[in-house]
Amino acid sequence: MGIDYTFKGVVNSFNTVKGDIIDFSYLTITLLLGPLYAYNLYFEESPVLAFVLNSIVLLGLVVVVVFKSKIPIRVKTLFLLFVLIFGNLYSIYRYGFFGGGQYFMILIFGLSIFYYNRWWAIGINIVLVVYFFIYMHLYTTGQLQYDVSPQLLVRSKMVWLADFILTIVVMAIGGYAIRKTFIAYQYKVKEQHDSFKKFNYTLDNLPIPVAALTVDKRISYFNEAFYQYFGFDAEEIPYIEDWFRQVYPDPAKRIEIEANSQRQIKNGFREQLQLPIEYNDFLTKSGEVKSAEVNHTFLGDVAICAFIDLTERKRKRRLIVETMMKAEEKENKRIAQELHDGVGPLLSAAKIYAHSLTNHTVDADKEMLSEKLNELLNGALKELRNTINNVTPQILQKYGLARAVESFVNHIQPITSIQFLIDVDELSFRDSLIELAVYRALIELINNSIKYGSPTEIKIAIKNDDGGLVVSYIDNGVGFDIDQVKQNGFGLSNITNRIETIGGKISFNTGAGAGVYVEIAFKH
Questions:
Q1: Would the pLDDT of 155 be above 70?
Q2: How far apart are the two ends of the chain, measured CA to CA in Å?
Q3: d(Cα 445, Cα 504) in Å, to the nearest integer?
Q4: CA Rg, the chain, in Å?
Q5: Do the Cβ atoms of 195 and 4 come closer than 8 Å?
Q6: Which of 112, 184, 426, 489 is the most exposed place for a label (fewest CB within 10 A)?
Q7: Are 114 and 97 in contact (CB under 8 A)?
Q8: What is the pLDDT of residues 384-407, one digit of tens each?
Q9: Residue 452 DSSP code
């Protein structure tokens, strides 16, 4: 993952010292070059424009030094750049090589590379260098004459003094900037080192698989949990292509998955944002088939990839679907059986009576056959209504869960010796899906108690609970071994999946000879 040691990375890290460097530059230039500007204003016969510009420069330097804390750094930077460019142009124009233009160019380069876009800075300095060489060419070829001869400039104390002062200015500002830069750089490196050390320690100790992916598709890091999950060493998966080749050995399957994933990751690096990517049915080194969701956190040219295992979740989801399908199949068989055993015989008999009716000519026989046919058809309709009512009880739709349970109990009470005790609250909400699921669960529990439990008493309580619903079912029968029943049949699984699929919770408490206690709860 690494730390950015490039010059650009260093420069971008020093916003806190840029203000100090610019203020020091103003102070040094004002103290050392201010007297030269004042000398030029007082002693030299300068053109009006040069006099005005020199006055503005001198006044501006003084103002910035006095009011430095109140002037934004951007304004100070622009004005200092103007001062240096003006000094460069003016010195080259008036005195050529002896005016110290080369020192101004050094200062301009240092200032612009620190405070401006590097291409903009390079452009400024190229223009100034071209300007310098043009004037030197004109001067050396005699096409441009200065007011003072070069010999006089060399002998002038003011000229060599100015040259010496400019040297001192450049050395002072450059030395101060370098010192501040390396102090800040040292602090930044230490800060980033400590930060990455803590960050790596956190990743190393995370309980979920984590890997670091660079923009060039290199897997630069993974934690112990990643190794435990996949089983691959760093040498086996140096790049993401190697990881795909390992976990999807079938090329036909791998090509499409890898292409789609690589496209999403590339967009993620560009946007610094990526939705989770799901990988299904891949192979670990040990041959296990697993599924996982990968969440990406982008940090510049590095993506931290956290793997959330979906294997167990998908297994449970598949089990729920299979159980529900089996429950539906069982229900369909039950309905078919009821139609076959109940409605089928009545319709078969009705068909016989209808056939006989067409073959009899005696009115008395026809009347008797018609009466019997009518009875059979009424019986068939009644059986059909009972079957439909068992699928979706009309009383449940019209009057709710409590009335439906009471109606079912009243229906079976005459054919059993079990005593039913029902305690029902007026429910504070109506949810047809929850009511149907609870109704089906209670019917299944009652049928199981009658078939296998041999109880003498069944208690059913349906209560409000903070806006939710709590249903308890108790019988005093022989009970059962819950683990054995779960392994050998789908009855309890059907009840459990039906309740949990729609957000409820169900618990069983039973044992051999201990009766059965079941609690169903829905929270709102």
A1: no
A2: 47
A3: 17
A4: 46
A5: no
A6: 426
A7: no
A8: 766 666 666 667 777 788 888 888
A9: I
